Amino acid sequence: MEMQVRSSKETLKDRLPRYRQIKLSVTGRKSGKMISMPVWFVLEGEKLYLLPVRGSDTQWYRNVLKNPSIRIDARGVEAELRATPITDAKALKSVIEKFRQKYGAKDVKKYYSKFDVAILVKLP
Q1: What is the mean pLDDT of residues 24-48?
Q2: What is the rounded average pLDDT of the residues 94-102?
Q3: Residue 124 pLDDT
Q4: CB 122 within 8 A of CB 82
Q5: What pTM does this model have?
Q6: Distance in angstroms (rounded) separating the CA atoms of residues 115 and 24
Q7: What is the DSSP string of the chain?
Q8: 102 or 8: which carries more pLDDT confidence?
Q9: In contact, 49 and 103? CB cutoff 8 Å
């Protein structure tokens, strides 16, 4: 029986549009261990936006402030990237709007409790 092998040339950017969530891995600011969790995202060109569910109180966001090196995994296609916090009100409003468009305002309201920060990740 032949197994189908996906092209290894597929990049994270090729794969992201197919999924509603990705796996985010960050380094724990106290433990120093890799911590992974599923997150929602919005992809726009070379920019990947992440919105922490509890805003600046979100643990993974706090870890990113200490160590901006993160790993994104879209079902097997991974990349090590740098996270840049977004705190500017206007930029933040734009990110929240993108999330509402992608996931629906109702679900964003249901799962997210604080909207004071976001994360920008530039894809290679």
Answers
A1: 97
A2: 98
A3: 84
A4: yes
A5: 0.90
A6: 19
A7: -PPP---TT--HHHHGGG-SEEEEEEE-TTT--EEEEEEEEEEETTEEEE--TBGGG-HHHHHHHH--EEEEEETTEEEEEEEEEE--HHHHHHHHHHHHHHH-HHHHHHH--B-S-EEEEE--
A8: 102
A9: no
